[in-house]
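Notes from hallway chat w/ T.B., transcribed later so I don't forget. T.B. wanted the structure written out for a chain they're using in a teaching module, and asked if we could keep both sequence and structure tokens in one place. Agreed to drop them here.
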Amino acid sequence: MIAYGLAAGSIGAFAVPTRDALLPVVAGGNLPRAVALATALQFFGQLIGIAMATQADRTGAVPLLVVQAVLVMAGALAVWRLPDPAPHPPTEHPGFWRSIGDGIAEATRSEQMWPVLLINFGIGVFYVGPFMAVLPLVVRDVYHGGAAEIAYINLAFWAGTIIAAFAFAGLARRLSLRGRLVVSAVSVGAVILGLMALQPSFLAFNGLCFIWGLGAGITMTQGRTILQMVAPPTHRARLMALFQLGLGGGGPIGAFIAGSLAAMLGLKLALVLPAIAMTVLIAAVLVFSRIWSMRTVE
């Protein structure tokens, strides 16, 4: 299981930033719509997989993993047929670590990119972490559920994400205050965590997951769009990798912290404390950046 997790995570770490860097090449004249559609379709596929996982108790894990393996192979064949993008002008490559540092420096110089990346890292630590580590414990210990109930809350969350992503695909060119959307959606997430700590009925808990998913769909599509539109082509892949690192790297850190809080302080505080920490981070970003008023237009 550990080897599988390392392999799957490594594949995603290479594939997602590369996909995001290729989007401007294939998007035509509507990059925001392409970002929203790519996000929506990604999570639509994930939603189908979660729906299939509701049958895990009945069918066992092996048939589902075989289906996943076949789909991954089909995706690899599709990627193999993609045309290569036009090469960038020849540039000097200073080395791996220097290249990473150059990408971080480019982000810190931009008044539009660094607040988005910082909020995204906060999402990884304070939202993805509790989602991964605490919500399954809540389902087990509070609602006495199993694999099916865990799948239901995931279905609710990702259904909200997909609906928001498809909605913003249609609204892509009408938006300019994308930073304001990101801050508002992330702020709603802190409220949702606080309400989850009240341990409402399981139906209401699923409703909260759905609303949280709507906010996630807004944050992911608009955060990615801001970076895609602002990042220079020479640094776009590195900056999208940083965006993915905020979620993929912050999530395990947050899961360890949230799981430890749950063990030491209980499930309620393991939800409330990350919400408070995220609120503090949002307030700091609002004070020290122009994210609330910045405009991004194609």
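Follow-up for T.B.: The first helix runs from residue 2 to 26. Might be a good example for the class.
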